[in-house]
Amino acid sequence: MPYQLQQEEVLAAGLKRIAGEQLDAAIRQLQSPADLNAGIYKARKCLKKARSVLRLLAPQLGAVYVEENRRLRDVARRFGPLRDTQVSLELLDKFAVHYKRKSVLNGPRQTLVERQPETDCEAALADSVASLLATRKRMEDWPLLHVTPESLHAAIEKTHKQTRIAFERAKKTRTAEDFHELRKSVKRELNQRRLVEPAGLEEWKQLASLLGDHHNLAVLLDSVEHASARFKMMIRRQMKKLETSVLTRFDTVWQK
């Protein structure tokens, strides 16, 4: 079924269904993936959606939310360095079009290759699948007795306020860290909004995409500190353009 509450569903059952479907999808992606990078990317997206649903249920779940959210976060983080390296290498290929002498990027590329984390992927995949299966089983006993339309919308409104706070902080500091926090909040809010109002979210999706591009550039910049000044300046210039687009677009989105 779609990542959306159905009109005939009881809220608690619908939210549990959606979270379960996202966990099932993540498990499938991590079980012997034909393409490791693609499987990790898709699994992490599913876990973000599951955690967005879980956040809505925090008032009902209490300590259960804290523990299960930590477990899902830890699975996603386990593959973060692998994903970051892959994205950075892909970005280098895109930047190559700006250079007549492609060899100038050999240094940054070699740095990234050498920094690839030494991970026993087979063991990491197996451990992660086992952890997600355990969460999936425990989900059947989640104490969801008081999910109402009012509590659901109150939880989404709380995320909305958190997004606004993150925006104001990023606007003031202009640091990569605060733009990353804004990105996480925007993604969470987008995922939550999709549950109840899937139409009319295109601008939110574009905002999330811009913030994702900014984060990827920040990760690349941190990974190639010994690259040429020209190369690092080009990355920073692209980041500044994205920051301007984000701040401008956010004011538009916020009015809707």
Describe the structure.
- By secondary structure, the protein is mainly alpha-helical.
- The chain has 2 domains: 146 residues, no CATH class; 109 residues.
- Helix content is 78%, strand content 0%.
- The chain contains 11 helices and no strands.
- α1 runs antiparallel to α2, α4 runs antiparallel to α7 and α8 runs antiparallel to α9.
- It is globular and about 60 Å long.
Quick structural gist:
The protein has 256 residues and is mostly helical.
Helical residue percent?
A: over 70%
The number of distinct structural domains comes to 2
The largest pleated sheet is described as: none
| Global morphology | globular
Overall number of strands: 0
Specify the structural class: mainly alpha
Average pLDDT confidence is 88
- N- to C-terminal separation? 28 Å
What fraction strand?
under 5%
- Strand and helix order: HHHHHHHHHHH
Number of helices: 11
Taking all Cα atoms into account, the compactness measure Rg is: 20 Å
List the uncertain runs: none
